[in-house]
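Many introductory courses stop at the sequence. We go one step further.
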Amino acid sequence: MDALAVVLLAVFSAGYLVLAGADIGVGMLLPWLGRDQRERRLVIASFAPFFLGNEVWLVAAAGLVAGAFPGLEHELLEELYPVFAVLLFAWVVRDMGLWLRGRVDASAWRGGCDAAVVAGSWGLALAWGSVLGSLLAGGGGLNAGSVLGLPLAVLFAWHGAGFARWRLPVALAGRAARVPSRYGLSALVMASAPVVAGVEVSWSEVVAEGAGLTMTAVTTVVVLPLLLAAQALVWWTFRGRVESPSYL
């Protein structure tokens, strides 16, 4: 059962980094991809239908860690609590910028919200890069994670460029095309990141025992097909290039 839980955690972690990593990366590149308010609305519209559904993968992964790997949860929070504080703050700032930018029809207001989206996206990328860096360093704590945090954060921007190249109108996609990235390739790299980081974790030392592990794993197995189906429906519905601004 513990092997199943590890595989499920790899699936949910990879799913989050591939899907949410794309909108985080696009947010990091927002000032470059969109030069004015009209263009920036199109850039945000490229991931607007997806970003809430993408975050469900993180919620599921966090629940799996709490239920099946309490030792890992304790270890990460103990060693990296400043990073997780930054992560949560950046998450709120970015989502606040996305939700509030359309509430007031004023260039200064939208500009401020766009700045929040960019800052929050960079904060998320750096925080996740530090978490992955710490795991890659064998649990070396905040210092080890900080060393690898920036290079890993750049992966989010690279992944975002690949997504933007696929989703944006041709005129704007040309800017993203200056970055040598394809969404399929960058998705493969992002999916590999948590798997490689997980190799350094001593899973037998952090896994739960008994009914808690079994219940968490079984519940996750039931939820996974539903999540995959919902995600596939959203991506099929909003496939292709975006042509008009969204509700954000």
